[in-house]
Amino acid sequence: MNTSSPPLRWGLVGLGRHVREEIVPAMRRSTAVEVVACAGRDIAAAGAFAERFAIARVHDTFEDLVLDPDVDAVFVATPNALHAAVVLAAARGGKHVLCEKPLALTAADGRAMVSACCAAGVQLRVGLHLRFERSLQRVAEILQSGAIGAPRALSIERTAPLAERVPWRSDPEQGGDVLFDVGVHLLDLVPRLLTTEITAISGLATPEPPTGRSADTISILLRLSNGVQAMIRASRETPFGANDLVVVGTAGMLRTGPLRWAPEHRITVTTEAGTTEETLPAGDLYRAEIEAFADDLRDDGRQLATGEEGVHLVAVTEAVQRALR
């Protein structure tokens, strides 16, 4: 993080639990950013939010916020179906954008968002905070070192808080599916760990698509271009879960302890030579993400997922949706 530049001034659009409990506290832990404005669908609730976090200005609409001359960048944390409208407005207002995943609900919308930001000369990045988890970076290093031979199978589980089952998340039209909540992170992570691409997808969802309700639990089976089989399970209706990762290779196995809601992460590697174990502290991921965004603006870096990468990930989720149906 470059600490010599003035703080990046943020406007927040979408003031739900995630922003209250995770994003704003992370911003307040950093000297690289400052929250100067916010906008929410309920102006009274937005006013209370601003008072709680000492935010100077409250805007009635996101259209007003993106025209605020004191805002350098917009953090988009609305329900998923509204991402496109806010990002397009931010581009028209000349504001840089960090949009929570998924970038959009369709690849077509995502491409329009990328084009608008490029035309406006503003940066667009996508919030995929697991990219900043040092323990997962270490897993990638171990796999790429050949320590367990050639990976043949991978499984990963991740659960979300039960509190995330708010009303809009039951509506597929608003992108409320757990696929867009937790699943997107894992679909981004698995190919990155294995340095390859997904070539085939199948899966199951509960509730099932014909019910017209968003899925709260999904299991996705992937084939990667290097022949690895990967199983992803994501849920937001179970109070307990392993939240772990296992990779089986031709010469050994890698296993982690819980990768969520734990102060440190354990990585165990077992081969013919025996078992080794290392631990790494859990990262301050949202702070790292916010500070990396500021760095990307300064040096045109690529620490965060770009808009183009966000569109690719949306295309993958569309393929998953087809498989679930």
Structural summary, described in words:
By secondary structure, the chain is of the alpha/beta class. 34% of the residues lie in helices and 28% in strands. It has nine helices and 15 strands. The protein has helices at residues 17-28, 43-52, 62-65, 83-92, 107-120, 134-145, 178-194, 285-299, 307-324, and strands at 8-13, 33-39, 57-59, 73-76, 96-100, 124-127, 151-159, 198-206, 217-224, 229-235, 245-249, 252-256, 264-271, 274-281, 305-306. The relative contact order is 0.16.
Q: From the helix content, strand content and strand pairing, which structural class follows?
A: alpha/beta
Q: What is the C-alpha radius of gyration, as a whole number of Å?
A: 20 Å
User: Main beta sheet, described?
Assistant: 8 strands, mixed
Elements, N to C (H/E): EHEHEHEHEHEHEHEEEEEEEHEH
Task: Work out the helicity level.
Answer: 25-40%
What attributes characterize this protein structure?
325 residues; alpha/beta; Rossmann fold; Dihydrodipicolinate Reductase, domain 2; 2 domains; 7-stranded mixed β-sheet; 15 strands; 28% strand; globular
How would you summarize what this structure contains?
The protein has nine helices and 15 strands. It is α/β, with parallel strands linked by helices and 325 residues long. The protein has two domains: 8-124, Rossmann fold (3-Layer(aba) Sandwich); 134-282, 2-Layer Sandwich (Dihydrodipicolinate Reductase, domain 2), CATH 3.30.360.
